[in-house]
Design a protein that fits this description.
By secondary structure, this protein is of the alpha/beta class. It has 12 helices and 6 strands.
Length: 323
């Protein structure tokens, strides 16, 4: 009797077709157009990214995600600089400015080898002075019309080592980090790499949403020849790669830092996923710290499609077991 007085439920989508956003990046998804269907959320496309639909075509994924470490900074050549200058205000050296310019030229040369006429670059940058100076000098390689946009992103900042740093105390803390473990050791009044992992996870989800809804270019002007450039810091970029490729803590701790003004390139493979082996050689990646198991997964990334899972990946499955 009571049930007959209740209003009829609204027509809802078939939730058997809903998948995790992470597994559907690169696939078509439903975009609701009726306000009554979405309770007013139709104007926010990032809210409706989880339902498959063959009728809707997503924007093309960027061709590359290029990770750039800032050029040589005053703190890289004189650690006592951190006792006088706040970490976010540490500037580049003259050498660092030159490294940034050269990095921009290398990025442009790499893009131009594609032979595409409509290529562009879009930048994400840490708000720290050395990262901003790297971006400004790196950007000299690109005409205004080649730059699709820039976003300052605080989640890309350097690992926080505390405020003004005592030089001798910092030496002791870094020695303790080696004993404790590079990923979990938290500096007093600062962060651990695990803390950086948490904020990079948030940035990664923002980035994936930006890719999925084509935020880099206006509708009708979206090209597969977009290149994303992330200008940040050594540890932050290693954590970004760890989070993207789901590397373990042990694998992260085996990675080496990038040199100043250098880059790691994630390039779209034959199936649409990003692989380090599309640009780098196995020898280069071994020097960076990738193991044989990680390289095997990168080979799979070259051919796989977005949404596919590597069930044979030894970095996250059978390697945990001894039988």
């Amino acid at each position: 009797m009571v049930s007959s007085l209740l209003p009829s439920p609204p027509n809802l989508p078939n939730f058997t077709s809903i998948r995790c956003c992470e597994d559907t990046v690169g696939r078509s998804r439903v975009r609701f157009t009726s306000t009554s269907q979405t309770n007013g959320l139709a104007n926010f496309p990032e809210k409706n990214l989880c339902v498959d639909s063959a009728a809707v075509k997503l924007p093309p994924r960027p061709r590359r995600i290029i990770l750039v470490r800032h050029g040589q900074s005053e703190g890289n050549v004189d650690e006592s600089a951190y006792t006088r200058v706040a970490d976010p205000k540490i500037a580049l050296t003259e050498k660092g400015l030159g490294e940034a310019e050269e990095c921009g030229k290398r990025i442009r040369a790499m893009i131009e080898r594609d032979g595409a006429a409509d290529w562009k670059v879009y930048f994400y940058v840490s708000p720290y002075r050395r990262a901003l100076e790297t971006l400004r000098n790196l950007g000299k390689a690109f005409e205004y019309e080649r730059i699709a946009g820039v976003r300052e992103e605080p989640r890309l900042r350097e690992q926080d080592f505390g405020n003004f740093q005592d030089r001798e105390q910092m030496k002791m803390q870094k020695a303790l980090r080696v004993q404790y473990g590079r990923f979990f050791y938290r500096f007093p009044n600062g962060e651990s790499a695990a803390d950086v992992y948490d904020r990079i996870t948030g940035f990664r989800e923002t980035l994936r949403t930006d890719i999925d809804i084509g935020r880099f270019q206006p509708p009708g002007q979206q090209s597969p020849n977009m290149n994303l450039v992330i200008v940040s810091h050594g540890l932050t970029l290693r954590v970004f790669l760890m989070r993207w490729y789901k590397w373990t803590v042990q694998q992260f701790e085996g990675l080496n830092n990038m040199s100043n003004g250098n880059m790691i390139v994630m390039e779209k493979g034959y199936g649409g996923r990003y692989s380090l082996l599309m640009h780098h050689t196995k020898e280069e990646l071994r020097e960076f710290g990738l193991t044989d198991a990680m390289l095997i997964d990168q080979e799979w990334q070259k051919m796989a499609k977005p949404g596919e899972l590597n069930y044979d990946c030894l970095t996250s499955g059978p390697s945990f077991f001894t039988h």
